[in-house]
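Tokenised fold entry reproduced for absentees:

. . .
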Amino acid sequence: MNGKQRINIKQGLKVNIVLKKDQRSGKLTSGIVKDILTNSASHPHGIKVRLVNGDVGRVQEIL
């Protein structure tokens, strides 16, 4: 599934995100979606979400 389309992202999904500080390295962080922060239907770098642990980043993969 595609992390660039908001319709694919739901609360409670397990995803891999890239944090702002990890954008250069591309290091991914796994977690469960708590909030969807991007309002538009799509975003070229991934939909921005907040995980249940508080991390904020853009979805790269839906697991």
Observations:
- Strands lie at 14-19, 28-36, 48-51, 56-62.
- DSSP finds no helices and four strands in the chain.
